[in-house]
Amino acid sequence: MVNTGARRTAPGAASVDTAEVERFGRLAADWWNERGPMAPLHKLNPVRVGYIRDQVTAHFGRDPKSLDALAGLRILDIGCGAGILSEPLTRLGATMVGVDPAEENIAVASAHAEEQELTIDYRATTAETLAEAGETFDVVLAMEVVEHVVDVGDFVATCASMVKPGGLMIAATLNRTLKSFALAIVGAEYILRWVPRGTHQWDKFVTPRELERAIEAAGLDVIGERGVIFNPLADRWQLSSDMDVNYMLVARKVGSA
Length: 257
What we know:
Strand order of the largest sheet: 3-2-1-4-5-8-6-7
Radius of gyration: 17 Å
Largest sheet: 8 strands, mixed
Shape: globular
Number of strands: 8
């Protein structure tokens, strides 16, 4: 991964970029505003939820059409923000733990879950803290987080250490290509203004091969990957073979689930 300079890290959390935490913490009040700064994430959420549901149910032998398809599975949502992803997975039956180092985000997430009468274990902490405590999960999610951490290898190793034998890690991030610079930085931040300027730093984007190597070095096997593209005619995000900008992948830890 390209790194152009030193970045501040939170105490006791080698992968956490303090500047990134502060940036997203300032947006806490607007996380659930579907017309606000998080509007693109709300629009992306259905394809994320669908991908996670389909990968997890296929792996654990569940019916993806079942209303409680994820029942009995303990899932960790790293960098959960205000719970945009944790809530729909809870509705599918998962036992969710959502962590975010920004206390403002966790406060909003907890309040919104209570309003929706959902039970979600939200914690203002880091992945490193959970790993050090020996916590393990059937599925560990790192969705739109990898491109915001200080060290991808260390972060992935931390995630992998919390995956139970036979469990899954699923990640979503941005590829570091000229196309992603044009679309995710210039287009999304400066022309279309889908997200606030400065949301992403192109040098922190991660290529699929870089992420695969980090995952494999952490002892997991990559078993699937898909690109995600925006369809302007349908006004929605969808899965694709094109991984030039957004992509997701799934990896498995060897052992019995």
